[in-house]
Amino acid sequence: MFIVSNSHKCGLVTVIFITWQVSIISITSIRPVVAQTLPSLEPSSQKIILPPHNSEFINPNRNKEIENEEIKNKNISPDFNSYLLDIGDGLSVIVQPLPGLYRLGIGDSIGVAVQRFPDLSFQASINPEGNIIVPLLGAISLNGLTLKEAEDKIRAGLNRYVIDPIIYLSLTGRRPNLSFQAPINQDGNIIIPQIGQLYVKGLSVEEAEIKIRSALSAITSDPVVVSLAQMRPVQITISGEVFRPGIYSAGTAMPRVTDILPLAGGSTLNADLRKVQIRRQLGDGSIVSQNVDLYAALQSGGTPPNLRLQDGDAVIVQRREPGTDDGYDRNLIARSTLAVPQIKVRVLNYAAGGIGTQSLPNGSTFLDVLGNVPLNTANLRDIALVRFDPEQGKAVTQRLDAKKALAGDASQNVTLQDNDVIVVGRNLVGKLTTLFNTITQPFFNVQSFIRFFENFGNGLFGGNSNR
Length: 467
Fold this sequence. Notes:
Layout: H1 6-29, H2 62-74, E1 90-95, E2 109-114, E3 122-125, E4 131-134, E5 138-141, H3 147-158, E6 167-173, E7 180-183, E8 189-192, E9 196-199, H4 205-216, E10 224-230, E11 235-240, E12 246-249, H5 257-260, E13 271-281, E14 287-292, H6 294-300, E15 314-319, H7 330-334, E16 342-349, E17 354-361, H8 366-370, E18 383-389, E19 394-400, H9 402-406, E20 421-424, H10 426-438, H11 446-461
Parallel strand pairs: 11-15, 16-20
Antiparallel strand pairs: 1-7, 1-10, 2-3, 2-6, 4-5, 8-9, 11-12, 13-14, 13-15, 16-17, 18-19, 18-20
């Protein structure tokens, strides 16, 4: 019997305890290895943001902005996310054999030599049904087979009549290339060689590809790829709060709303760029609409929703409703390409002896006009800004102090609008104010507003008017 002393017991317990502690430490220090799914090799729609060079600070809100842009694009109706084919478009149809072993198809020619039995040798072309005629066997389908598979099939068939025939199959003529270019004609059809007409108007390119592939499956099993080879001219109707409503031809094949608005002279002061409506007629005659918020992108410095316009679309710029100006910065729009690029401001100056017109970049301020006003003869303390208010149908006057504006008072350096009138001279301002007080009939439109000042200037200065 083995007897352990107390001292040996203590030593043994100590060794066991230390070994247990080391095991615990080892287990906790080693991270578990878990099988992970490999990242997908499919192309991702998520945008990759690269940090700027030599930058120590990355905007933490940037990813949030990207997410917001993607959400806006996802909110676009599917009817506006796909290009619908119409008359004048052209399709490119590529029919190309798969890489690797050649597979027989309709129109291919083959030669078959049978050793010891020359009477069984033959040449044949694969007919529209995918068959050839073989001596003794009749019709055999070879469509989609490789040369080796076709050779084995013919050998197996002849083996019923000839013991272990030795045959050699060769390709003597390839079928013609079935690829073609197809414009959409006035009836909405394309012409497919060897097939005939196929109606594709109103379909997306993806839907047309499925339909063309189905039609070509009767004569080929090769892959079919369809792409848009030519786009029809794009004409867009622009209406609402723009300077020149009308029908415009776009300079690009698939323009955005931001490409079209400058063609119409940009948005007016009363436009609400938070509510730009796009209307589109579908192939079945129904009308769909989509609202686009251009102001949010302008405010955040991001990109507008990726909505591409098509021929026949209508862009309607809504009018801003009264009481919805809170947080809506018209000066921000004035400095963008979404507004008219230049404005005309008229200066009625008694000291200069006439009424003149200045063309300024949109977004210009009161100080930009003062650069062309002779300040040494002008009464800088009393200058009037007269502006036509279309909602009230009358002129609205604001008194400005040029000296305060020159000293940096932002409240006096107001942003100007198209067709504003600057009146310089204390007596002239007073006379004009008296006239406004005696006018009871409102101005009909901005043209009548401008004519009033031209007539006022001609009467005051004896016909000396600079336009």
